[in-house]
């Protein structure tokens, strides 16, 4: 009990210390792993953190190539890149977003959303370019049949496995960042919803050996999300700038249609025609009717939930636009009424049948002329 009391009062265990120095702690841990590479005794353990594991040489027509599959050691690699993501998050925040925030003078709510969108713009842009490069170099676009042929795709190229490990590391790092960034309690459920969706879909594609389909679906998703957060950044700088939201709405609907179409094509038609249809977890084969129905239901549920959120967002924007228009009309009518009241001034009396009447209805007294 005495140790617990001392630990709570020690600055290393305080909440403020962890919030303000979490990136420095992560940098020290990463540096320790990199220093371990310099010594022969610890180099093997350090490579376990840095490089993907479970490599195997596979003979091909052009010779042997090194491919990878997944295993429990991947958790160690993911842990290392979680600290890398925390460091990069702090770099983007300090050297880019904080400098912009000082110039914009945003409110606390907008400040939090601006930081969120700024971080996700950087991540989505990097992931889009990286994902597109992997898809093109691996030939998944030029040969769409490769998305389901020779399933299960147990052996992965280095860049495919490394991409998935980094994606899992980023979305796992987003969980402690909710604490480090002091996200409001009202915003935490929304953050947890989309973080959980990304983790479930990315981990599902990785563990169920649907990595090729997962790459293309991630690319579609990241394009739509990138446009949304760019539009939100421009909206915070100028609230009258909403044209990018219209472009995002079109891209969002198209990406949902492509996601559903491609998922049905690969899972319901492609995998259904593959000869090897058996449940064999040791070989990484999950190609059964129940498996295909489960994956399709998961994809349809997530797309329906996203469309419902999209429609709710558009309706809210429409209501806000209508309220703003009504407020402007009432303000314009009030200004117009004030202008009319200023131009048409009432005199102290008014005319009735050619006779000037006073306010009480009596005619004013005639002015007596002084005698010369």
TrEMBL record:
Subcellular location, record wording: Membrane
Residue spans crossing the bilayer: 78-97, 118-142, 215-235, 247-269, 289-311
Biological source species: Eublepharis macularius
Lineage: Eukaryota, Metazoa, Chordata, Craniata, Vertebrata
Chief localization: membrane
PROSITE patterns on file: TLC
Entry superkingdom: Eukaryota
Stored InterPro entries: TLC-dom, Translocation_assoc_membrane
Encoding gene (name): TRAM2
Name this polypeptide is given: Translocating chain-associated membrane protein
